[in-house]
């Protein structure tokens, strides 16, 4: 009898222990260091999103949890067990792939039951587990179809269903929504959030889409060049980014960053620049055109109407480009000289190393 | 190209007036023009001779005297009912195919599984196994005839080192058949290997990752995922290999000339003998038609099994 997936761990493990832990984990492919010393703890039942630009190592990190990639140095633990040398199938994880990886010659039911079948589970139990999962995901009517007969969203649900039937301790999602169109992506995002609420399992989710990260995550891990830049709740990352990279990566449209010495005269003094700060960041949604003509002088260069509001591209005195989100149906014509004001609490200062300087 | 398509939009209808064709007709006409070279080639060089052979097969035609008389199905009756040689030859052909096809395809699949993913030196190995395919059949046969000689042959000398007294490979009927099969497999296996490599490389690697994560062993992944996904490639490869093995000629001609004791006399070589050594063109043509029917039947059978398998 082959060992079955560690299905019971989720219920028997100590909730005070982390579900997943990285200790100084590194990974290199030949001379290329893809992951460089990652430390992270994920709590049981937590929804953690790895986010970062292409090539930051987020998918590699996910594959290291799954065991599809080995660890060059450091340790990966699931529960109390170091899993560096544990084969993928015995780690108690299930993965949803970006490509869905549904076997094209098997029906939906066979795809979902594949893992159970290779583990020699009795056919009746496979059937009942597949039925449970398909009820959860509203796939009942599709069980006899082949993947080629399904829409993108349905395939996605089957891929999730296949992960659910194994009752894994940790779900791994590798950019699961990037092959879907925008509308479906929003819909499936909500479904995944509901699923997490219902199942309560630990979920690790990789995406390069910061909106997905913000909406789904209990905590976000921002990665760059194989290192963690910051870990925190979506709100923490948005309101208190540790550095310039996180400040610009989180939030859409991205934060305006100006060199303090190039700001229009008098503005720096108004902002109350702390010692050591060389750059200042202001989010486009925190800036507005002041009807009274006070604030930073700027010239309007272009306006993009998006429906509820407009994105206005301006040029500050001194030449720095600046973007603001302008609420309302009309915006001033191009070439108009305006003044910008902002909520002082929403200013971010950075030192010469791009590290945030927190005031007070 | 664009101008050619535009030119097709108007066709002289013979009364001096230009006729405008609908877009669909125009597209159909363009398509016909594109396929016409191969269609004409097919009709002239394949379908024509096929019809001619069927016609010849009903003649008693001596190539030397030039006399030809219509004999109906007599040549077929001769082969199928009266001439014991035919059944012997057909049996040889089937033995050859039954030996070659599984050996060739099994080995090709094993090699492809070993060589479809990149590793250091993979190109070297692929070249090694593919090189015989592009080697001249004559050179190949000559080299193997030397290697397989009874007393001074390299193979037997190697066997002698291990204390084994090797047979005279090409002079004993059963060994000769085994020898032509194996040397043919070694020569041709590279082609099927390349086809299998291409098929394996078209299977997304995520399937393998997903299956491994779900606990499937290497053998289970092969049996439950890889092998079913290779089915279309396997069908093509098996058709090409089966038909190729029935048509084998050069290899037999060069290595054994059908001997010893007609032990390797296969259908294609027998047809050649009848046509160009005994000048029995009518009889040879009937044999050729029978071979065509057998090859066609085997192909249809394989397609049928594949369809049944899918349903």
UniProtKB/TrEMBL annotation, chain A:
<dbReference type="InterPro" id="IPR008995">
    <property type="entry name" value="Mo/tungstate-bd_C_term_dom"/>
</dbReference>
<keyword id="KW-0067">ATP-binding</keyword>
<dbReference type="GO" id="GO:0055052">
    <property type="term" value="C:ATP-binding cassette (ABC) transporter complex, substrate-binding subunit-containing"/>
</dbReference>
<dbReference type="InterPro" id="IPR003439">
    <property type="entry name" value="ABC_transporter-like_ATP-bd"/>
</dbReference>
<protein>
    <submittedName>
        <fullName>Carbohydrate ABC transporter ATP-binding protein (CUT1 family)</fullName>
    </submittedName>
</protein>
<keyword id="KW-0813">Transport</keyword>
<dbReference type="GO" id="GO:0005524">
    <property type="term" value="F:ATP binding"/>
</dbReference>
<dbReference type="InterPro" id="IPR017871">
    <property type="entry name" value="ABC_transporter-like_CS"/>
</dbReference>
<feature type="domain" description="ABC transporter">
    <location>
        <begin position="20"/>
        <end position="250"/>
    </location>
</feature>
<dbReference type="InterPro" id="IPR013611">
    <property type="entry name" value="Transp-assoc_OB_typ2"/>
</dbReference>
<dbReference type="InterPro" id="IPR027417">
    <property type="entry name" value="P-loop_NTPase"/>
</dbReference>
<dbReference type="Pfam" id="PF00005">
    <property type="entry name" value="ABC_tran"/>
</dbReference>
<dbReference type="InterPro" id="IPR012340">
    <property type="entry name" value="NA-bd_OB-fold"/>
</dbReference>
<dbReference type="InterPro" id="IPR047641">
    <property type="entry name" value="ABC_transpr_MalK/UgpC-like"/>
</dbReference>
<dbReference type="GO" id="GO:0140359">
    <property type="term" value="F:ABC-type transporter activity"/>
</dbReference>
<dbReference type="GO" id="GO:0016887">
    <property type="term" value="F:ATP hydrolysis activity"/>
</dbReference>
<dbReference type="InterPro" id="IPR015855">
    <property type="entry name" value="ABC_transpr_MalK-like"/>
</dbReference>
<dbReference type="Pfam" id="PF08402">
    <property type="entry name" value="TOBE_2"/>
</dbReference>
<dbReference type="InterPro" id="IPR003593">
    <property type="entry name" value="AAA+_ATPase"/>
</dbReference>
<keyword id="KW-0547">Nucleotide-binding</keyword>
<comment type="similarity">
    <text>Belongs to the ABC transporter superfamily.</text>
</comment>
<dbReference type="GO" id="GO:0008643">
    <property type="term" value="P:carbohydrate transport"/>
</dbReference>
UniProtKB/TrEMBL annotation, chain B:
<feature type="transmembrane region" description="Helical">
    <location>
        <begin position="175"/>
        <end position="200"/>
    </location>
</feature>
<protein>
    <submittedName>
        <fullName>Carbohydrate ABC transporter membrane protein 1 (CUT1 family)</fullName>
    </submittedName>
</protein>
<keyword id="KW-0813">Transport</keyword>
<dbReference type="InterPro" id="IPR051393">
    <property type="entry name" value="ABC_transporter_permease"/>
</dbReference>
<keyword id="KW-1003">Cell membrane</keyword>
<keyword id="KW-0472">Membrane</keyword>
<feature type="transmembrane region" description="Helical">
    <location>
        <begin position="221"/>
        <end position="246"/>
    </location>
</feature>
<comment type="similarity">
    <text>Belongs to the binding-protein-dependent transport system permease family.</text>
</comment>
<keyword id="KW-1133">Transmembrane helix</keyword>
<dbReference type="InterPro" id="IPR035906">
    <property type="entry name" value="MetI-like_sf"/>
</dbReference>
<keyword id="KW-0812">Transmembrane</keyword>
<feature type="transmembrane region" description="Helical">
    <location>
        <begin position="280"/>
        <end position="305"/>
    </location>
</feature>
<feature type="transmembrane region" description="Helical">
    <location>
        <begin position="127"/>
        <end position="147"/>
    </location>
</feature>
<feature type="transmembrane region" description="Helical">
    <location>
        <begin position="28"/>
        <end position="56"/>
    </location>
</feature>
<feature type="domain" description="ABC transmembrane type-1">
    <location>
        <begin position="90"/>
        <end position="302"/>
    </location>
</feature>
<dbReference type="GO" id="GO:0055085">
    <property type="term" value="P:transmembrane transport"/>
</dbReference>
<feature type="transmembrane region" description="Helical">
    <location>
        <begin position="94"/>
        <end position="115"/>
    </location>
</feature>
<dbReference type="InterPro" id="IPR000515">
    <property type="entry name" value="MetI-like"/>
</dbReference>
<dbReference type="GO" id="GO:0005886">
    <property type="term" value="C:plasma membrane"/>
</dbReference>
<dbReference type="Pfam" id="PF00528">
    <property type="entry name" value="BPD_transp_1"/>
</dbReference>
